[in-house]
């Protein structure tokens, strides 16, 4: 981490994450998962994108490489966004992720029977290769206690 105040605060957060996930004594964590609910909040608190990406890098090393677990990160993005710092973080995370779930509204606007779509991108390789990522797109409808997913164009309203 760099020597800035925000980076030192993230170092303390990373130390907490590492300590919390490291098994103690007879405990045996099998595939721990670190959930980061909204990484964009750190940027709104004044943390630099480099410090945020360093934090995620250190978490990835500790959780994925050392503890053989996974990290799930939520970030908000908007193609029309002028928030360059946030877009830098989003693009970097996408570049270094094995699986991307991209949730967005419908391009055609509001629909009472389809609330949006989710794009599932499975990265074949994190290296620069000619292999194409596997992309699946589903639409969804949010109900009172669950979410219904269906292939594009196959909502109950259409059928």
TrEMBL record:
One GO BP: tRNA wobble uridine modification
Naming one, the record's GO cellular component terms include: elongator holoenzyme complex
* Pathway stated in the Swiss-Prot or TrEMBL entry: tRNA modification; 5-methoxycarbonylmethyl-2-thiouridine-tRNA biosynthesis
| One Pfam family linked to the record | ELP6
* InterPro entries attached to this UniProt entry: ELP6, P-loop_NTPase
What domain of life? Eukaryota
Give the family, as the similarity comment puts it: Belongs to the ELP6 family.
Q: What is this protein called?
A: Elongator complex protein 6
Organism, as annotated: Eudyptula minor
């Amino acid at each position: 981490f760099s020597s800035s105040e925000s980076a030192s605060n993230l170092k303390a957060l990373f130390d907490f994450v590492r300590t919390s996930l490291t098994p103690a004594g007879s405990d045996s964590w099998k595939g721990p998962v670190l959930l980061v609910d909204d990484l964009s909040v750190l940027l709104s608190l004044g943390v630099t994108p480099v410090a945020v990406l360093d934090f995620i890098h250190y978490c990835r090393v500790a959780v994925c490489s050392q503890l053989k677990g996974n990290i799930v990160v939520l970030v908000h993005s908007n193609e029309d966004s002028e928030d360059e710092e946030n877009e830098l973080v989003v693009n970097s995370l996408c570049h270094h992720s094995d699986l991307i779930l991209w949730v967005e509204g419908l391009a055609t606007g509001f629909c009472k029977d389809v609330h949006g779509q989710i794009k599932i991108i499975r990265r074949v390789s994190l290296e620069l290769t000619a292999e194409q990522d596997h992309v699946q797109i589903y639409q969804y409808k949010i109900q009172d206690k669950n979410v219904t997913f269906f292939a594009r164009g196959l909502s109950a309203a259409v059928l």
